[in-house]
Amino acid sequence: MKNKLSVCLMLAATISLNLQVYAQNTCISFHRQEECNQASEEGFIYNSQSKSGLFGKGTTSRLKVVFFKGFDYSITLCADILLGEGIGMVMTDAATGEVLYDNATDNKSPHFEFANEASLNAIITVTIPGEGTKKGKAADGACLGILIQQKPTPKTGF
Amino acid sequence: MCLFVAAAFITIALSSCGPDENGGDSSDTTGADTDGMTAADTSGADLPAGVPSPSEMFAFMKVAGAKNADFNLLNPVENEKKYESKKAQSLNLGIYSADLLYCSTFGAGSNKVVPYFGVCVRMGDKLKVATSLTEKDKDRISKNAGNADSLIAISSDLYLSSFENLEQGDRGADLSLMLAGGWVETLYLMSSMVKDFEKDKQTAEHIAEQKISLDNLLEFISKYESNENVKAVSGDLKELQTLFADVQMGRSGGMTMKNNKRVLGGGAKTEITKDQFEKIKTKIGGMRTSFIAAQ
User: Can you give the pTM of this predicted structure?
Assistant: First the structure.
C-alpha cells in the first residue's frame, strides 16, 4: 500500500511539474506573433532580449535590457486579452533608478520608440492591473510578451 | 486512489501558479527571480536578464565604424570534432555562432559563411538542439552570398533558434555556457579590431561599453551556478568584471523630445585607458583559448 502511494505521489508530482513547465513554455514565444509588431516604420529588426512569460493580474515583473547607443528602439507590450487593459510599463535606468519612460503619462500606451544616444542597462517594469486570484482557486495567469526591435539611427544632416 | 492523488497534486500545482491572497506583490519585486526561463509563476517574478546576441554586439561595432575584421582569428571548423563533452559543445556552439555572425556582419563572403553555418547546425544536432533550420539553408546562404543583410538575417535565425530551443527545453546550464562562449568570442573578435589604441579609440570605447552586457550575462548565468561547469565559467567572468569595473561609463541624460521623437541620453562619454583595455583584452584572450581547447 505504501509503495503504491509512493508511486502515485511521484506520478502526480511529475505530471504537475510538467503542467507548470508546459504553462510557462506556451508563453515563451508569445511576443513572436505578427500582431505584436507595432513599429512605426520599416527597418526595425528583432532584438534577442525580447521575452515573454506567464503573468497574473495584480503582479509586477521586471526585465533588464541592454540598449546600445546609435540605435532606434521600438518596445511593445503584447498581452493576452485575459490580462485586461491599462497594463503599466515603466522604463528606468538600472544604474540610477531614474524613470526614463512611464506609459501612465502616455495614455497607458503599450508601445513606444526612442533613439538612443547613450549605451545603458535599463529595467522595463510591467504591472498588470487588477486583483490576483485567491489561493485555492484556479490561476488566472496569461501570456505577456515584451517585443524589442532595433535599427541603426538614421544619420541626419551632412 | 492513484487518480485522486494525482488530481489533488495537479489542483495544488495549478492554484500555486496564481497570485497570492493580496493580489500578488505588486510593489516590490526587487530580488525576486526565477529558476526557469520564463516568469516561473504569476506571482510577480522577474524575467531573466537580457543578454545581447553576438549579432547585436557586432552591429553596434559596425554602426560605430569599426574596421580591421580579421577572419583568420576564427575558431577553425576543424576543431569541431574535438568537442565531445557537453561543456565543450555548449561553449563552442556559442563560439561558432559568434564566428558565423562576425563573418556575415563584416562581409566575409559565402566561402567563409557556409562552413561556419554547417558547423553550427552540426553542433546543434550534437547538443540535441532541434534547430528549425537545416543543411538545406546552406542553399539560402549561397543564393544570398552578395546580400549582407540576408546573410546576417539567416545567421541570426540560426543563433536564435538554438537559443530558443535550449530555453524551451529548460536547459539553463547548457544555454548559460552557449551564451558565455558567444559573448567571450564576440569580445575576443571585437578587441582584435583595435590595432592601434589611439587610432582605434572609438572602437575600444565601444568594447568598454560591453561592461553592461557582462553584468547581464553574469546575472543570467548566476541562476545555474549549481552546475560545476557554469560555476567555473562564471568565476572567470567575475574576474573579467573586476577589470571592467575601472571603466568609466557616462550616464545618460534622460529622455527628451527632439523633432517629435523621443531621444535618450546624449553627451555620455565612456572612458577607458590603454592599460585597462590591454588587461581586458588579455583576460578575454586567455578565456577564449581555454574555451576552444575544451574537449
Answer: 0.83
